[in-house]
Specification:
Elements: E1 5-8, E2 13-17, H1 21-32, E3 36-40, H2 89-102, E4 109-110, E5 113-121, E6 124-131, E7 134-140, E8 142-145, E9 152-153, E10 169-172, E11 186-190, H3 194-205, E12 210-214, E13 220-222, E14 225-226, E15 229-230, H4 231-235, H5 238-244, H6 249-264, H7 279-282, E16 284-286, H8 290-295, E17 299-302, E18 305-309, E19 312-315, E20 320-322, E21 325-328, E22 332-333, H9 341-346, E23 368-370, E24 375-377, H10 381-395, H11 404-417, E25 423-425, H12 426-437, H13 450-455, H14 474-483, H15 495-513
GO molecular function: flavin adenine dinucleotide binding; N,N-dimethylaniline monooxygenase activity; NADP binding; trimethylamine monooxygenase activity
InterPro entries: FAD/NAD-bd_sf, Flavin_mOase, Flavin_mOase-like, FMO-like
Family: Belongs to the FMO family.
Length: 514
């Protein structure tokens, strides 16, 4: 590639690669710290995955979020009035475009500009890009990689897969564009991810003649709504994170499993296989309609695939069935092909993650930060915003960067625990980045919303109560979000909540005394 022109940017210019949710919220907070973002985006339109016309998008036009509108927004901008509890793709894209306009990000965008190389050059970072055939090189003191994880669909190796002869072929759920083309056909959906389950249900309710699912390990499956309240309002809260530091892991696992069973039941009650007794071992997925479709006989569940011969798929129990199509909802590989080989080696980059300090920094790569490089379970928007605030504070000189030794310890911890490749619960991630940014609220000093802070949803507004960029409107926003859907309408604790609150206070007192 001809390098074309080369431009060295001043230190207050920060390169951001990607204009999806992570890149946009990073740019918003970089601007807040008095710095100037330069946002590289390969598509002609922002939105990342929510821009369904992008070649890298895994979103189909009728798809809705699997997290509620309150938890799928940033702290400065709610969704438009009248938006449904779960937001359709077009409304999500509208929201992100409105966010970019409101936050003043449009002048900082370089659309139709594909990054082809990022490497270290002296004390700077060289970004080589291509805009509609025109190559350019830019150097920056600091770069934020915000391209996300869902960029290369992963399909497992199965004997005979290449020779599958069903008329509709083999595809990944990332390529799914609706049930219409599968009407009247027999479809196998492989995987137990949210997208696999949602698509299986969409097919079953959308006219497919026969829908079969197969997976290696049966997960517990939560509905989107629990007694009229979005699941992410119920399952992810501050008290759960605080209890992690008080109770033994086996007690936490037992409590989480019991909670899941109490609100969703076990898949075997609906006719699916029985998962492992520990929800952390089995894993947790989500779908509103999948298990009811299994119970109604609209979806059949089989063990994992043994082999394929023409249209015939043989399963591990010895049974065989004929299919017109196979859809794999088996996840994505983390792919950053434009990252220099040296950087990839330093961060231990493979198809499933990287080893970084708190998923963000590396001690040998000063001035480089990664956003959203984790496999999050739960709402992503609040977590991305908190991570972006922390990075912007560090780059803006407001918050000290972790020391070299702290970063090294963080990288080693990531390697030892395989943290960069495992699932990362949303509430744990949010509180980690909030503490790093100095914006985690102390529920005790907010008695009028203490219950909402401990047992309500981890809303973006709850991280604008204290610290830098606190908002006077945040307490009311926290109360409104907790009261939404009739969940927490008063500050009167239930007996169970009061027991948890007492335990947490006792632990805080003993820790302070020590």
């Amino acid at each position: 590639m001809s390098l074309g022109t080369c431009f060295k940017h001043p230190e207050d210019k920060i390169a951001i690669i990607g204009a999806g949710p992570a890149g946009l919220v990073a740019a918003r907070w970089i601007l807040a710290r008095g710095l100037h973002p330069v946002i590289f985006e390969a598509s002609p339109r922002i939105g990342g995955q929510w821009n369904s016309t992008s070649s890298s998008s895994a979103v189909w036009p009728r798809m809705r979020t699997n997290t509620s509108r309150i938890m799928t927004a940033f702290s400065d901008l709610p969704h438009a009035a009248g938006t449904g509890t779960y937001v359709e793709q077009s409304a999500m894209l509208d929201y992100l475009e409105r966010y970019a306009f409101t936050m003043g990000l449009l002048p900082h965008l370089r659309l139709k500009t594909r990054v082809e190389r990022l490497e270290r050059t002296g004390d700077d970072w060289l970004v080589q890009s291509n805009t509609e055939g025109r190559s350019q090189s830019d150097t920056f003191a600091r770069v934020i990689v915000a391209t996300g994880r869902q960029n290369q669909p992963e399909v497992p190796e199965i004997p005979g897969l290449e020779g599958f002869s069903g008329s509709l072929g083999v595809a990944h759920t990332a390529q799914y564009d609706g049930a219409e083309r599968y009407r009247g056909r027999s479809v196998l959906v492989a995987g137990c991810s949210i997208s696999a389950l949602e698509i299986a249900a969409d097919l079953a309710l959308g006219g497919a003649a026969n829908v079969v699912t197969t997976n290696r390990r049966q997960r517990y499956i939560l509905p989107k709504m629990i007694a009229g309240v979005p699941t992410d309002h119920v399952m992810f809260n501050r008290a759960a994170v605080l209890l992690d530091g008080v109770l033994p892991p086996d007690v936490i696992a037992e409590a989480v499993t019991a909670k899941v069973l109490s609100v969703a039941g076990s898949p075997d009650q609906f006719g699916a296989p029985k998962p492992a007794g520990n929800a952390f071992v089995a894993g947790i997925s989500q779908s509103q309609n999948y298990l009811p479709c299994v119970a109604e006989g609209r979806i059949s569940v089989m063990p994992w695939i043994e082999s394929i011969d023409g249209r015939s798929v043989r399963f591990r129990d010895g049974a065989s069935h004929m299919f017109d199509a196979i859809l794999f909802g088996t996840g994505f590989r983390l792919s950053l092909p434009w990252l220099s080989e040296n950087i990839g080696r330093q961060i231990g980059l493979d198809g499933h993650g990287a080893d970084l300090h708190d998923f963000t920094f590396h001690p040998e790569l000063p001035g480089l930060a990664f956003l959203g490089m984790f496999d999050l379970v739960g709402p992503t928007f609040p977590v991305l915003e908190l991570q972006a605030r922390w990075v912007a504070q560090c780059f803006g000189g407001v918050t000290p960067l972790p020391s070299h030794s702290e970063m090294q310890a963080g990288v080693e911890r990531s390697r030892a625990t395989n943290a960069g490749r495992g699932s990362f619960p949303m509430h744990v991630a949010a509180c980690l980045f909030a503490r790093n940014a100095g914006v985690e609220p102390d529920a005790v000093i907010w008695p009028e919303i203490e219950r909402a802070l401990l047992f309500g949803p981890l809303t973006p507004a709850s991280f604008r109560l204290q610290g830098l960029d606190a908002l006077a409107t945040a307490p009311a926003a926290v109360a409104r979000a907790a009261a939404a859907f009739g969940a927490i309408t008063s500050e009167r604790f239930s007996a169970e909540e009061d027991g948890v609150r007492t335990l947490l206070k006792r632990n805080t007192a003993s820790t302070t005394a020590a």
